[in-house]
Amino acid sequence: MSNKNIACPHCNQTLAFSPSLEGKTIKCPFCNGDFIIQTQAPRTSAMHLRANDQDNTFNFVCPYCGHTKQLPMVMNGKVVECDACCEESIAVPATEKECPFCGETIKFNAKVCKYCKNRLDAPAAPASARSPRGPRTAPKGGGHTDYETDDLSFFDCFTLAMTRNYANFNGRSTPREYWFFILFQMMINFVLFLFCGLLIGLGLTEEMAGLMFFSIFSLAVLVFFLPNLAITTRRLHDANYSGLWILLGIFLAPLGSLILFILLLQPSTPYENKYGYK
């Protein structure tokens, strides 16, 4: 059985040892330091790969320090040593990473953090200024509202518009976010109609049930008034139109409402427009 080489952790001298000594404590003949010979996992060095092996790469994030590195695909599943912290781990393609600004876990290829709204190609905040898992707040002074809305669920699109973006008239909202919000409102109105019918079925007079329905519906209209204006404005911004087009739908109905509806159906402007970036 051929011997293997290992570096002494005390003096860094290269030693030859028999595989039968793995897991046992030995003494270095150079510095007399004691250390345990660790079981050697199969490793592949990028320096020894053929050129055609390095054509396909994947992104690897060190689980210890978060250092990001591109590795050849042939190293997938192999033990690698991090260039930053020197810890060893099994290399697997990264699908998520931590936002350098707020510490939240986001998609690896995300350009904008969906929590703190910061662009990830901007300089990272100092570690002392970060607040992992801290309160998520909207960006100050407008800008964009692009936060991986393709990944937001039906309910998330509604709660986002009703909380963080309740009165936010700046930035952009994708068609998915806008129409999910509108659909959720329609569902709430439908539930109110069912509630009115239930009251009549329980013996309440139609007048009394209608009055209760009108009161609840009026309250819902007041609650949804600002979010509706805000998200409609952001949807127009997303299609590169001014939010003032809303006035057309209000004062020139029904023709103005039809024109506004057509504008709201327009696709998102790719990349960046004067209202923000995507």
Please explain how this structure is put together.
With 278 residues, the protein is of the alpha+beta class. It is built from five helices and twelve strands.
Order of helices and strands: EEEEEEEEEEHHHHHEE
Structural class: alpha+beta
Total domain count: 4
Low-confidence stretches: 41-54, 123-148
Strand count, sense and barrel status of the largest sheet are:
2 strands, antiparallel
Beta-strand segment tally:
12
Q: How are the strands of the largest sheet arranged?
A: 1-2
Helix content: 25-40%
**Percent range for β-strand residues:** 5-15%
Shape: elongated
Helix run count: 5
Distance between the termini: 60 Å
Mean pLDDT: 75
Computed over alpha carbons, the radius of gyration is 30 Å
